[in-house]
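tokens incoming
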């Protein structure tokens, strides 16, 4: 058998897109509660009040102007508020995961369910109890939880009162939050990820940052590494430094509490190819790739790579390190690298590049088909990336997101025939298998994204579905929330039962 015994097959979700119950159980407000729905062509918006009292809006990836605070408007639909309502359906949903044979379930904790403001003196018992119940439900079926401590989830109070992750004070607040989780769930959860896709974070959305010129910064969708303003780069890179220190300290605290914990970092690492063999494309692709790998280099190896300085200099940015920071990074690196892989992209040195959910995006690849959202489908790229990452770090890898966002049709008889999704996954798993069996990559598990339908992070749509389980809800939040099995449900069940040997459909 290619996959080792105990290989962790499962699925992945995140609270900001799945959990809902945004104002229940003593939960506080998160920035994700302020992001409107959007679409492939219409960016999601965050409305805010300027310090002069004006109401304005910005898109994901931008910071707010100094002194501005995010607001919730009555006439706007906010998909996170209900999401697909795990909060009230967790028993039913986990039973369905168990029916598929999940060995593992990746979920994220909503920080403001535990600390409603992020800096409260004591945690919210009702929030802690909710996740106790969720973990008990998983363990009842022998499903190992894999917990993401921070997944696109910024307490509003920490953004508006502290300026978000640009402020070093957040390090202690995050470490206290993670320590609270480690202590409470030390006998229920073994696998942890500190921060989701640290390399796509940016702006008020995920870092809670403000800056002087933010209202003049035009960034559609997300950050554009080669063209965003120096002010954005400074707040972003400094904020992520603080996050990495917080993540390392969290590794330490977690292992002090339970030495058997496995604590990893997580990056968006969809692959990158040069568009042509022109040296500008080849080196450009290499350089673009290492901008994605930078934070993995720090967290996996324990120090900043030499090339970081050159990148920071491009933005006129000088990293502020405090005494002790280097030692913290060195002493408490991540034990495994978790990553998302959805697609590959082709780097063309004459064209614009961006970073969105799932990772970097450059130009299209004429050899690859694309999803309706323009994400190239590249199973062999997964083998390439698995090898690239294992060669680079020589530590266990975990594919914690992969899958195909697509429009699913419910037939008159209620069936949902998502053969395109099965085809996508079968081909990706076949490449994983070669990477494990032939290339010797140490792969711990596979948790495809959005194993049950949830809200898209990038567009806020519901119709961009990833699940094996369909949820009856539309882009405006209308629907019965009823769960039903897609054709891929039984297929994935068979894959898990055969430990990845039987991919037929
Ligand atoms: C990853 C995120 O970026 O990609 C998820 O970790 C996200 O939160 C996923 O949902 C897919 O992206 P999207 O935009 O299709 O939801």
């Amino acid at each position: 058998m290619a996959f080792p015994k105990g290989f962790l097959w499962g699925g992945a979700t995140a609270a900001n897109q799945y959990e809902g119950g945004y104002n229940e159980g003593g939960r506080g407000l998160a920035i994700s509660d302020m992001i409107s729905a959007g679409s492939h062509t219409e960016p999601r918006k965050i409305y805010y009040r300027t310090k002069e009292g004006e109401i304005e809006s910005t898109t994901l990836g931008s910071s707010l102007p100094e002194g501005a605070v995010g607001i919730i408007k009555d006439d706007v639909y906010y998909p996170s508020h209900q999401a697909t309502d795990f909060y009230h359906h967790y028993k039913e949903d986990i039973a369905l995961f168990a029916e598929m044979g999940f060995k593992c379930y990746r979920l994220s904790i909503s920080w403001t369910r535990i600390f409603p403001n992020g800096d409260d003196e004591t945690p919210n018992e009702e929030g802690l109890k909710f996740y106790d119940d969720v973990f008990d439900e998983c363990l009842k079926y022998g499903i190992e939880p894999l917990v993401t401590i921070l997944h696109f989830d910024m307490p509003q109070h920490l953004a508006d009162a502290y300026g978000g992750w640009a402020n070093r004070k957040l390090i202690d607040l995050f470490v206290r939050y993670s320590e609270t989780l480690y202590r409470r769930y030390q006998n229920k959860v073994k696998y942890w990820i500190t921060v989701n896709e640290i390399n796509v974070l940016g702006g008020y959305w995920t870092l809670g940052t403000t800056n002087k010129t933010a209202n003049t910064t035009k960034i559609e969708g997300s950050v554009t590494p080669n063209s965003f303003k120096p002010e954005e780069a400074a707040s972003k890179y400094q904020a992520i430094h603080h996050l990495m220190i917080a993540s390392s300290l969290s590794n330490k605290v977690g292992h002090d509490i339970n030495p058997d914990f496995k604590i990893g970092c997580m990056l968006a690492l969809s692959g990158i190819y040069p568009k042509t063999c022109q040296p500008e494309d080849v080196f450009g692709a290499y350089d673009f790739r290492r901008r994605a790998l930078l934070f993995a280099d720090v967290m996996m190896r324990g120090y900043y790579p030499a090339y970081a300085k050159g990148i920071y200099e491009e933005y006129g940015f000088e990293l502020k390190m405090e005494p002790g920071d280097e030692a913290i990074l060195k002493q408490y690196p991540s034990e495994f690298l978790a990553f998302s892989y959805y697609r590959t992209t082709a780097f063309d040195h004459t064209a614009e590049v961006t970073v969105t959910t799932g990772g970097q995006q450059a130009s299209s690849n004429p050899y690859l088909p694309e999803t309706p959202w323009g994400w190239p489908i590249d199973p062999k790229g997964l083998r390439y990336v698995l090898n690239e990452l294992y060669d680079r770090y020589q530590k266990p890898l975990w594919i914690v997101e992969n899958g195909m966002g697509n429009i699913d049709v419910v037939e008159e008889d209620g069936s949902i025939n998502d053969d395109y999704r099965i085809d996508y996954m079968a081909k990706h798993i076949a490449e994983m298998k070669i990477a494990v069996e032939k290339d010797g990559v140490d792969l711990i598990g596979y948790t495809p994204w959005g194993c049950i339908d949830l809200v898209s992070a990038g567009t806020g749509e519901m119709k961009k579905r990833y699940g094996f389980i369909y949820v009856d809800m539309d882009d405006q939040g209308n629907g019965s929330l009823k769960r039903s099995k897609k054709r891929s449900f039984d297929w994935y069940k068979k894959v898990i039962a055969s430990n990845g040997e039987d991919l037929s459909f």
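note: Residues 213-228 have pLDDT under 50 and may be disordered.
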